[in-house]
Amino acid sequence: MLRRFFPLNMTAAGTVPPAEVVVLGAGVAGLQAIATAKRLGAVVKAYDVRAAAAEEIRSMGAQAIDLELETLEGAGGYAREMTEDRAARQREMLTPYIAAADALITTAAVPGRQAPMLVTRAMVEQMSPGSVVVDLAAETGGNVEGSEAGEVVRIGNAQVWGGRNVPSQMPGPASKLYAQNIVNIVTLMTQTSEEEGAAAFAPDFEDEIVAGSCVTHDGAIRHEPTREAIEGEQV
Asked: What is the mean pLDDT of the chain?
């Protein structure tokens, strides 16, 4: 969608500078986006609310954007929700980075919650003609105001692509990774008898994954869903 070179191009007719890419969210998808854009030769800058992400961003060869705001570490390595005041300050400070970008990729999500709105329509309108925005969180509300899941919409001079059921676009790897998750959790809940050589259901409730995913066992309720979890499912 971005109709320009990603890498630096030096020709007899002149020099074309590399594309500038900004990535918001440095989880699995964000780091892969950084790595891909770097391999294509772009200058990449990235931001994540988690403190540990800055080092991961730099390890991929990108520049970590430092807004000097408090970090938001959540459970399980995910980011936690931010207050509206902090979100507004973050958007204000990210605006010049986004305005200078040829391509913006957003990947931020909070499990069980609506995706945080990181980029307003006004911020996108400051991008140059021909710019491209990729919102991978469009299905859960979107990181970019005005993005629509499964659609390409124009905001200002930029094209905004909203992701919809993105894993289905890579069915082989998606199925393999999902299957591996199932194998791993079933393995945690079974033990093989040395005498009989057969696997038996024997969940280890000392394991945080087993304990956290078990709702009932042996007639007892072990884990009741929180109000936040129920509201997240409704969303």
From this structure: 88
Integer angstrom CA distances of residue 231 from 84, 85, 113: 19, 23, 8
List, for residues 85-122, the tens digit of each pLDDT value: 888 999 999 999 999 999 999 999 877 788 999 999 99
First and final CA of the chain: distance in angstroms? Answer: 31
**What range does the domain containing 218 cover?**
170-234
In contact, 80 and 72? CB cutoff 8 Å: yes
Residue 71 carries which DSSP code? Answer: -
Supply the CATH number for residue 111's domain: 3.40.50.720
Cβ(116)–Cβ(24) under 8 Å?
Answer: no
Task: Name the burial class of residue 27, with classes exposed (0-12), middle (13-18) and buried (19+) by CB atoms within 10 angstroms of its CB.
Answer: middle
CB atoms within 10 A of CB 5: 15
Do 219 and 160 fall within a single domain?
A: no
Distance separating alpha carbons of residues 173 and 177, to the nearest angstrom = 6
Residues 135 and 178 in one domain: no
Residue written as token pair 């109709």: 3
